[in-house]
Each structure stands twice: as C-alpha cells, then as structure tokens.
Amino acid sequence: MKTKHTTFWLISVISLVLLLGSWHPAIAKPSVSFISQTYSGDRLVIGETFTLHSGETLAGDLIIIGGTAEVQKGATVNGDVDLLGGSLKLAGEIVASINAVGATIEFEDGALIRGDIHTVASSISGLEKATLMGSLNTFSPSIGVWRTPVFRWQPIPTEPFNFLQRAFLNLLRTVAVAILALLIALILPVPLDRISQTLTHEPFLSGGLGLLTLLVMPAVIVILLITIILIPVALAGLMILALALLLGWVAVGYEIGNRMADLFKSIWSPPLAAGIGTLILGFVLYLLGYIPCLGGILSFLIGCWGLGAVLLSRFGTQVFRTIPPTPPTAGGPEITSSLVPPSREENAEGEN
User: Where is the segment annotated Disordered (predicted)?
Assistant: First the structure.
C-alpha cells in the first residue's frame, strides 16, 4: 500500500516538473497592422472602400465604380487605375495611367504616375505634390466655358528611341482602327452608308448635335453614377456613346474613302472604302498632331461631326435630311418638295 502511494506522488511530481518546464512567460511582440503581400489580377471596387497599404503591390488594374480607394506611400499598382464616379487618394506609385470619369482624385507627397492622366468631368487636387511622367488630358464641361484637353507639343524629341516607339505604336493603333472600320463596313454596309449620307447632307446640324451631346453626356453620367443604383445605366450609356463615336469616326473615314474612289474614277466596295479612308484619316491626324493643338482640335471636331450624324440617322436606320418647303408658284398649288440628291441605295435601285 505504501509502495502505491510513493509511486503516485512520484508520478505527480514528475508531471508537475514537466508542466513547469514547458511553460514560459509571453514576450510582447510589436503589433503588425497588415501583412505585406501582392494581389494578383485586377481589383474591382464597387461602392466600397479599398486600401493598398505601404509595401503591398497590386499586379493588375484597379477599377473603382462609385467607391473609394487609397494607395498609401510605398504601395504600387502595376496597371491602370480606372474610376467611374469614385474617389482616389494616391500617395504611392501607379505604373500605368489614371482614367477617370466624374471622379475625385487627390494626390499626396511622393505620389508617382508613370503613365498619363485622362479625366472627364473630374476633380484633381494636389497634382503639384506628385510626379507625373506622362501627360495630363482633362475634358470638363462648364457653364459657358469649354476647357479643351491639354496637348503637349515637342517638335524635337529628346529621346529618339521613345519617339520611334511611340510613333510605331500610333501607327499600329491607326492600322487596327482601319481594320475595325473594314469589318464594320463588311457587317453593316447599309447603316454605314446612311450615316455617311447624313454627314454630307447635314454637316452643321450633325456637328452641333454631336458637340451638344459631348457637353451634356458627362454631366448626365456623373449624376447617374452618384445615385449608385443607376450605375448600370451609366455604364450602358458610356458603352452606347463609345459605340456611336466609333460608328461616326468610321463613317467619316468611309466618306473619305468614297471621295478617294471618285478622285481615281473607280468604284470601291464599302469595306475597302471604309478601311482606306479611316487609315488616311488616322494618319493625317497623327501628322497634324505635331502642330500645337491642331490635331486634337480636328479630332474633336470630327468626333462631334460623326457622333451627330449617328444620332440624326438613328444609328444608320434612316437617312436624315431636312427638306425646306419650296415657295408656292403664282396661281398654282403649294409645292413642299425640294431637290434632294438621291441616296446611294436609290441610285443602285435605279441602275438595276
């Protein structure tokens, strides 16, 4: 019996010693508010708040729709930052460009933007504290005043390699738009022809309507974005506006192609006329871009012209032509028709 008690107490003492040996006091460690990491892929922020802390990297684009984002000092976004009605507070680095529509951008000391800044009806503050390696292009409507984009002109490039690289990329972009115009003319030859006829029949009305649309649309889109719930409507409006601008641009190129065909006294198919005309249009505007403000102003006016024609023709569903009434002849009935040149479709039907 005594042996059992001795064994029990011996086991208890050994267990207590092992327990005390495994225990040690807690050592206070500095608290870590976040873990430095890299986010892969694009980041979409819709009506929320996103913070990229110092030391963190976003390997993709940052897209903000009605939300708030902060890029702290020491943080990096390896892509574009796109804002639709949101806000951005930047103290870190943006490797690409910032594109904003109806947004608020605040720069802090140490902010670095390696690309360009393109804004439409947006507010920018603290840009003097940041380092912008690209160009600033602002497009903001105001009451009675239209602030045109800022164009930087550099007649003698200081870095030939960058100049040649930029020229090559612009040439590729021009060729890509020309190929897209060829495909549009191949798929939609009749609507494109109607838009082109509206361009020629109503040039001033088309330009005025396009200018008015570009003046009003940014404000309408900003209002829709602010409501949050109508963000899908705003996005749909942006897509329709972009499509209308593209169709108008291609229609101008298509008309130029037809005029070139008449100059050479030949007949070109719609895809060929659209492709060659759009290529010539883009190349000429690129060369005119080396004259201060001229290329940008002409591009804007051509965009307004084509956009208005698309809207007047209802996206090519009809040819819009105003027909002024003819004054009545003495003693005869009132004549309301006018001499309007027949459309290309009517000419084709007459030939058949």
Answer: 324-352
